[in-house]
Amino acid sequence: MSHHIVEARNLGFSYPDGTVALKNISFRITHGESVAFIGANGAGKSTLLMHLNGSLLPLSGEVRIGGCRVTGKTLQAVRRTVGMVLHDPDDQLFMPTAYDDVAFGPLNLGLSENEVKDRVELAMDVVGVRHLADKAPYHLSAGEKKRVSIATVLSMSPDILVMDEPTNGLDPFSRRQMLNLLGEFSHTKIFATHDLDFVIAICDRVIVMHEGEIKGEGTVAEIFNNLALLSECRLERPLSMQGCRFCGA
User: Fold this and answer.
1) What is each CA distance from 176 to 42, 84, 166, 192, 197, in whole angstroms?
2) What is the Cα–Cα distance from 239 to 245, expressed in whole angstroms?
3) What is the residue extent of each domain of the chain?
4) CA 173 centroid distance within chain
5) Which CATH superfamily does the domain covering 5-88+158-241 fall into?
6) With CB atoms counted within 10 Å of each terminal CB, which end of the chain scores lower, N or C?
7) What angle do CA 220, 222, 228 make, to 5 degrees?
8) Is the pTM of this model over 0.85?
9) Which class for 67: exposed (0-12), middle (13-18), buried (19 or more C-beta within 10 A)?
């Protein structure tokens, strides 16, 4: 499957209770880009991300990964290309040990024992959690769980990394480690996040959502200097762009 383009065309989705989550969403992300979807709670960010690997399927419009439309019939191919790291690592880690969690995906690809071992060790080395291989997930810290969750995705060798709130729940040191780790990835990276300073550090482009619609997109500087847009979408500038209350700078 070609992985050079992630594209949504007139995407619409409503939940069974009638809540309209996405309204006529269209965007295009090219290979190697790092893009953040931002918006207030309820803007539709997480729902949108779940369409990118087929966890949810459109009720109208379409999502394409490369030239492949995401449907029930293409889920296996799509999920080999798009790796999804969930908001809560506890939803992603369910095996007895961290090693078992990272090995789960490759084992289900039918790879040999040696191939699985190589993939697991490489993925755990990349995120720096090899020493946690024999630990149960519930004995890990929040930062360690996040890293192991990323390793479970990397072991599948995806071309596109999708993450929902990657820095949520991390202490400052773990957050900095996460920033450094993601900054080294050459994957196409797509995030949904409330951490706007994270967006400044990691992303090339920002797409602003509000009440299920895209209200604006542009470079980091263009979006965070558009105060009218931020106000309309119940957002503020990142803290690093706001004045210091002590010196006024």
Assistant:
1) 27, 21, 11, 18, 11
2) 11
3) 5-88+158-241
4) 20
5) P-loop containing nucleotide triphosphate hydrolases (3.40.50.300)
6) C
7) 115
8) yes
9) exposed
The structure tokens listed for 173 are 């040191």
Token pair recorded at residue 101 = 């969690």
- Say if residues 94 and 136 touch (Cβ distance below 8 Å): no
Alpha-carbon span 187 to 6, nearest angstrom? 13
